[in-house]
Design goal:
This protein is α+β, with helices and mostly antiparallel strands. It has two domains: 59-289, 2-Layer Sandwich (Enolase-like, domain 1); 316-471, DNA polymerase, domain 1 (Orthogonal Bundle). It has 17 helices and 20 strands. Helix 14 (406-414) packs across helix 17 (460-471). The protein is globular and about 70 Å long. The chain starts with a strand and ends with a helix.
Length: 473
């Protein structure tokens, strides 16, 4: 894995560490991309700099110029939960809702989505349509770069080895502007985009005065459909106009064929999704695709991981022997020999808590779901040192003495288990939802388990058990 793990207390300290280690170091906030890359051998950083608990970097603000500012630790779920973003940056909020599953959105950051620089990453497309900029900072100073100039190719950006993305900014939608984001994947949740489209329109009554259309997952970087934009200007969104705009958008791209879809399919769906996005905006139904109160799986917390207290001991690990001081299921423990592991493997191999399962080690199955400081996360995508001075709850901590958690008891009563391998993840997600919602609907229950994969059942007994658990709460 890595040789050295740093947990800085301040932004200045993090930048100093970057300046010192340069290309040998990687920043980690959510880690939902980086941990997979390390596991697959795509990256082999010797130094990890964990910025996930730096103070005041997980805020969403609107300045006097009506410009949004997203800190580098703002997670996808924090955007989804922001009424400000939903009302004045809806394309971004919708894209964040489409990212992964609740456990992924609780850790993954918008800044990380940009820095990873995959053209299939969902938040890049709406931020391009919103004409965003990013501020990059190092000990040498800072610079602001328009997002369209930030990307150089697939997983390539202008970010220098000693720079950190510290701000994402873009103008809020005015009262005469409307916008949305649509995505095509191979499944309803946890899907990588085959094609995604963002549209932002300025309107004068029912006439388009300006259009911005961006397409993702169809080229090495996000594509701007300028011909379609020019065509829409001065038009009313009739069926024929929307169809022509979709066709022009599809002509903009020269997509590749890969395992998710052929070039012909991507071109066809680019046209279809563009037309569909325009139709939703014309009918005013774009917000129907986002639940009025999305499930977060952050329990009774506010979805913000606590920053390091000034008096807390921090962890700078040079070897695997330095202890991780953490509280697991209410018990304070020192864990030795785990500094180069994931939190999942620390829990299983060093803490002896084997209820948390390893199904995929890539954040796809949810069997490793635990609570980190009250928030549901995939433990396979969290570095073990992140548990230092944190509160961890695993499956073993759900019961109160001899009394099972209501979700556990309901799974027994309803026979909601087959092989049982996925069950710990479902139980953790169900328990988190119970702490978040008093009486969740069936649709909300389905939202809560989108990050949990069962390979045995048709989910009917699982859903039935969860519904029964909330009845007996």
């Amino acid at each position: 894995m890595w040789q050295t793990y740093h947990t800085p207390r301040s932004l200045d300290e993090a930048l100093q560490l970057l300046a010192e280690h340069q290309s040998n170091a990687r920043l980690i906030a959510g880690g939902t991309d980086l941990l997979i890359e390390i596991e697959r051998g795509v990256r082999s950083p010797r130094v990890i700099i964990d910025i996930s608990r730096l103070p005041n970097l997980d805020t969403i603000t609107l300045d006097e110029q009506q410009r949004f500012h997203l800190g580098p630790l703002v997670t996808h779920n924090q955007v989804v939960a922001s009424k400000l973003c939903i009302h004045r940056a809806f394309p971004l909020a919708k894209a964040c809702w489409e990212v992964g599953a609740p456990q992924i959105r609780n850790r993954g950051t918008v800044a990380g989505n940009l820095v990873t620089a995959s053209p299939a990453n969902d938040t890049i497309t709406p931020l391009m349509a919103l004409e965003a900029s990013v501020t990059l900072q190092s000990v040498r100073g800072s610079r602001t770069v328009p997002l369209k100039e930030f990307f150089l190719g697939v997983r390539q950006t202008v970010l220098e080895a000693d720079e950190m993305l510290v701000d994402i900014s873009f103008p809020a939608l005015a009262n005469y502007q409307i916008g949305t984001f649509v995505k095509l994947g191979l499944r309803r949740a946890q899907a990588i985009s085959i094609v995604n489209v963002a549209v932002v329109l300025s309107m004068l009554a029912d006439t388009v005065t300006q259009a911005r259309i961006t397409l993702g997952s169809v080229a090495p970087t996000i594509v701007r459909a300028t011909d379609a934009e020019r065509f829409l200007t001065g038009k009313v969104l009739t069926r024929d106009v929307m169809a022509r705009a979709g066709a022009l958008a599809a002509q903009t791209i020269s997509p590749i064929s890969d395992v998710r879809g052929s070039a012909e399919y991507r071109r066809y769906m680019s046209e279809t999704l563009t037309r569909h996005a325009l139709q939703m905006l014309a009918e005013g139904t774009e917000s129907d695709t986002l639940p009025p109160k999305p499930v977060m799986l952050w329990g009774s917390s506010d979805g913000h991981f606590p920053a390091l207290d000034g008096d807390e001991a921090i962890l700078h690990t040079e070897t695997a022997d330095e202890p991780i001081a953490t509280t697991i299921n209410g018990e304070f423990r020192f864990i030795h020999g785990a500094n180069d592991k994931t939190l999942l493997r620390m829990l299983r191999e060093d803490a002896g808590l084997i209820g948390t399962k390893e199904g995929c080690a890539e954040g796809e199955c949810g069997a490793c779901t635990i609570f980190l400081d009250g928030i549901a996360v995939m433990s396979c995508l969290v570095p073990a040192p992140r548990a230092h001075n944190s509160q961890i709850v695993t499956l073993e901590g759900l019961a109160q003495g001899d009394e099972l958690h209501p979700v556990q008891q309901a799974f027994i009563n309803e026979g909601a288990v087959q092989c049982g391998y996925c069950t710990p993840g479902f139980l953790m997600s169900g328990a988190s939802l119970m702490a978040e919602r008093r009486r969740p609907t069936r649709d909300e229950i389905k939202q809560a388990i989108t990050g949990n994969l069962c390979r045995c059942t048709g989910y009917y007994k699982i859903l039935q058990a969860l519904e029964k658990a909330y009845e007996i709460k």
